[in-house]
Amino acid sequence: MKIMTLPCDGIGPEIMAATLEVVEAANRRFNLDITFQEEQSGFTSLRTHGITLREEVLDRARTEFDGVILGTQSHMDYPPVAEGGRNVSAGFRIGLDLYANVRPARSRSFIPNKAPGMDLVIMREATEGFYPDRNMYKGVGEMMPDPDMALSVRKITRHGSMRICREAFKLAMQRKKKLAAIHKANSFLMTDGLFLECFRDVAKDFPEVETEELIVDAFAALLVRKPETYDVVVATNFYGDILSDLASELSGSLGLAGSINANAETGLCCAQAQHGSAPDIAGQNVANPTSLILSAAMMLTWLGQRRGNQELMEAGRTISDAVDAVINDPAKRTRDLGGTVNCDVFGKHVADEVTNMAIAA
């Protein structure tokens, strides 16, 4: 199995190195036969090739690799698209049609949090919505007709809504059979109205799943008030982006949240940390690599489930358990969690746990 790695910007190279040490430990323990190949992206690619993400990298990811581990990007600091500043994350999501952004948020009793009992997954559509760099065939969906007016176009399609809702229902069937659809159809009558229409259509195929429809602002309040109530949540791109960050921070830290972008039909999957590139601490070896480590674990589990490969699934679960075992020990935590451990040492601790911990029957 071949995995493409792209360290990208800011703390990306540091958390990528720690993540790969952990995945290599799982690779050895479970005889996964994974090989890794690094590609340039972000500012490194811009300096070398004049663009932050080359089309040939996407082509190779699509045809030659089983998965991708993508580091953090400083895309707000990139030059304009016309000068090579392509959004790397969006490039992968659109270029590989990775429409399902899967973002769990789980509170841990041994980490201070504001949402005791939270254990949910947000299924976010990732290829359309309010994001102007991915909702037009050519050009972008944002424009300024004059210096004092800015307009943005939102795109919601039946195709995009149906497939993310279907994946959310499938996930709900694997969990507690509860699914909440988030919308603002009281204001966005046509766009969110179409999304809800699709949600209801798909629901007919999953009568066992208990469904709920919640207005986005009300759900944000309920997520704070009673987070333990929710299990699987499905949302369009913009809502899902904001709500998943909120949920992860409530559960303890955005730095503890894994994330994958996947396409159930093609089998392509990309692991990506939920957080940004943190340029203020880049190169200092103090970043917390947990989010990218857990994202890589999610990717292995997802690939294993799709292929019926027990070793991949076990590897993913073991990495996740190893992370919990390490952060349960205050002496092994990174600075953002109140500890003193550096990024590379944290990776070594998790890799050691993967190698040595007992596997639950």
Provide a descriptive summary of the structure in words.
With 361 residues, the chain is α/β, with parallel strands linked by helices. It has two domains: 210 residues, 3-Layer(aba) Sandwich (Isopropylmalate Dehydrogenase); 137 residues, Isopropylmalate Dehydrogenase, CATH 3.40.718.10. 41% of the residues lie in helices and 16% in strands. The chain has eleven helices and twelve strands. The strands form two sheets. It has a ten-stranded mixed beta sheet with strand order 2-1-3-12-11-4-5-10-8-9, with helices on both faces. Strands 6-7 form a two-stranded antiparallel ribbon. α5 packs across α6. The longest helix is centred in the first third of the chain and has 18 residues. The model has no long low-confidence stretch (mean pLDDT 96).
Work out the radius of gyration: 20 Å
Oligomer: single chain
Mean pLDDT metric:
96
Structural class computed from helices and strand pairing: alpha/beta
CATH fold call of the largest domain? Isopropylmalate Dehydrogenase
CATH second-level architecture of the largest domain? 3-Layer(aba) Sandwich
Domain module count = 2
pLDDT < 50 runs, ≥5 residues: none
**Strand line-up in the sheet with most strands:** 2-1-3-12-11-4-5-10-8-9
**Beginning-to-end CA distance, first to last residue:** 26 Å
Helicity range: 40-55%
Give the CATH level 1 class of the largest domain. Alpha Beta
Strand content: 15-25%
The CATH superfamily of the largest domain turns out to be Isopropylmalate Dehydrogenase
**Largest β sheet strand count, sense and barrel closure:** 10 strands, mixed
Number of strands: 12
Instruction: Give the SSE order as H and E letters.
Output: EHEHHEHEEEEHEHEHEHEEHHH
**Inertia-based shape:** globular
